Amino acid sequence: MEQKEFSIESLENFTTEQRVGQLLQVWRDYYTEIFEVDLKTGSFDSLMGNEKSFWPRKGFVNIEVILMAEKLVHPDDKQAFKEFFDLDKVGKLISEGIFVTKLNFRLIDETGDYRWVKVKNIVPTKHITDEVRFFSCFRLVDEETGKDLQARQELNDAVEMAKKKLEAKSALLNRIYREIKTPLSGIIGMTELAAENNDDAARLADRIKKISEEARKLDKTMSLIREDEDTSEDPELINDALNDKAINKITYSVRKEVADKTDDGEEKPEIPDDFVYTSGKRKEGNKKKPVYNFTGKRILVVEDNELNIEVMRELLEGAGAEVDIAEDGRKAVIRFVSMPAGTYDAILMDIDIPILDGYSSTRCIRISGKDDSRDIPIYAVTSNNFNEDVIKSIEYGFSAFFAKPVDFRTLFEKLAIDLT
Predict the structure, then answer these.
(1) First CA to last CA across the chain, in angstroms?
(2) Residues 6 or more apart from 178 whose CB is under 8 A from it?
(3) Looking at the chain, which terminus has fewer C-beta neighbours within 10 angstroms, N or C?
(4) How many CA atoms lie less than 13 Å away from 131 in the CB half-sphere?
(5) Inter-axis angle of helices 306-318 and 201-226, nearest 10
(6) Alpha-carbon distance 297 to 198, whole Å?
(7) What is the pLDDT of residues 200-213, one digit of tens each?
């Protein structure tokens, strides 16, 4: 039967010297090696060693930890081992009232096999002075305990691997949205313009040419995504196009991660019913296209995709609005702040833009202190349309959220309401 470790709390009424003496007397039957470490100098002395000690009897912690980590510690445990004996971190923990820390790691033995070792850093007194000394106590665990620790480690490794795969797939999905939906929004918008205004043959040909060019870029992007290294470990994403099954698998993983994050008890902002607009949200009723009149209104469009800029400009100017363009977030903020209050009636803000993203740009505008900075409608117009993107848009001060590809009739309906 394994001997129970002696409790520090049971010696609460003893002096430091008495506590140390009593602890060492009991610990000699429990630990394989015990070292006393001077936190200030980093030096250590062996209080109880053995012939097969993996540490020298005297030395400096920062040197021996590095040597031991490189020569004897299992590769997967090296970083944790180094951090555990980082004296700056040890000192910080002690200053925070944490006097006992522990670590399980694997150490190579004389046979070349790895064995599990338990180590504790223990401060023997709560009455801390400038000269802090603590014990590092090592113990080789028995075979049964080692198997249990190994099973736990394998479980932790599996969880960490799953987490990394989830993060990789999340990044891939975000890239798909960014690289596909943004140009797709421009293609759809330009197609609608070409279909509705086709009296001018030369202008129609130019629009068709631009649609074709953007479609070719989109096709090239799809090829790049297929070659993405993030997909190399998933058989469903190798050698085949990104089919519905693969996309659904990625989407499920990301949405589950979002759901897990929202279940941590943290209060999340409510999403108003009239905040999110997608391409399928508009109710089909009157087929007749409404006429919008934004004459006298000035709108700032923040967008870096040329086709989307052209579509936005033509549609808004066709409704009588004056349009200014900013190709990155920094320009958008400078343009808004440098103009007199009331210059702009609304801002259409992409999220994935250079220099300063749409979230940060909107936050800068909201806190700029201008008379209209709090009230001007700012719409997120973005391909990032997961729940966390919507919540983040609310937190950063957006007035509405439009997912690409944009339903421009829905966008104009919202503008018409907000501008009047």
Answers:
(1) 81
(2) 352, 383, 384
(3) N
(4) 2
(5) 140
(6) 27
(7) 777 777 777 777 66
